[in-house]
Structures are given as structure tokens and as C-alpha cells.
Known about the structure:
By secondary structure, the protein is an alpha/beta fold. It has helices spanning 3-19, 30-39, 63-69, 80-83, 110-118, 139-146; strands at residues 23-27, 47-50, 73-76, 88-92, 95-97, 102-107, 121-127, 131-132, 155-159, 164-166, 172-174, 181-187. It has a single domain, classed as 3-Layer(aba) Sandwich (Rossmann fold). The protein contains six helices and twelve strands. A four-stranded parallel beta sheet has the order 1-12-7-4, with helices on both faces. Strands 8-5-6-9 form a four-stranded mixed beta sheet, with helices on one face. Strands 2-3 form a two-stranded parallel ribbon. The N and C termini lie close together (11 Å).
Amino acid sequence: xxxxxxxxxxxxxxxxxxxxxGEAHYAESLVEAADILAAHPALVQREIVVPPAFEARQPWGxxxxxxxxxxxxxxxxGDPASVADFPAGLSSAELAIAETGSILLAExxxxxxxxxxxxxxxxxxxxxxxxxxxxxxAGSALQRLTxxxxxxxxxxxxxxxxxRTADIERTLTIGVQGPRALCVIIVE
Length: 188
């Protein structure tokens, strides 16, 4: 993909995600992504929870020492009670869809999944090379993730913006059944 194509896709992704109530940032490197995270208002308490063994995820695990250097305390997710209403959670997205401003989360273990479901602010990292124009174009990636075998992902979610729900009178409420805020950082 050319830089122009990546820029156009990111701008489209950002517009769609912001329309859904989320926010998106573009980072040239993990160092820049760590700077974005450390400066974010949701990290005023200077603590973040991550899925178990996040340090071993490639390339994302390398961001943890960078966050620690910036004064962010890092906790590893355990049971749901330990993560519920944690100020911020950091996970990784398998891919992003510009057409809808959505990210695809794919995890197998509950402690990894709850980081994106129970924290007040969910931060997600996604590689620029996994930003697709439309969902249809991500088909081969979805087939790879769901193919039977040791790397198969059993729980896959497309997430677009923060959690939202409405009652019968159409009163919209944000963050009742999930994060109040979603911040996606697309990393080159």
C-alpha cells in the first residue's frame, strides 16, 4: 500500500469511528503510540490493564516498557471483577475496517476478552497494514483467524465506537454495557 492510500484509508476510518463516538490516532511507530497513550486524558490515573501475556504479543508487547518509562502502571487482567471499571484497558485489534470505523477483536481466553469489554476506556492498537477499505476485502484474514487448528480464534467481535444502548423511548446511553470510550491507534 502506498502512503497516500494508507493516509486516505486512515482518514476514512477516523471519520467513521468519530461518527460512532470513538477516536482514532495514527502513529508512525510504537514510540509515538506510547506518547499518544501516555498523554491521553483517560490515563490521568496513570494505570492501564492489559491481557495476560501481552508482553509476548508481536509487535505490541514492546510498548509495555515504553509505557512504564512514561509513568504508566501496567496490570495484567485476571478475573472479571479485577478488570470491571478499570480506568483504561489496552488490547490489540487483528484488523480495522475504514468503511465502518470498526476494529476486529479476536481472543480465546476470557481474561483477554474482558479488557475490551469491562474497562471504562478501551485502547486498541492495530497495524496500518491491516486497515482494510471494506469488510469484504478482509475475508482472507477472517478465514485465517477462524480456520481450525491451534491458532483458531473462537471469539471474534467487530467493535465500532464505545458501548451504547437505547431504551424503548430511544434515549441513548453510552457505556452501560461496556467501555464509555474507544480509542484506536493505527501504527505504521
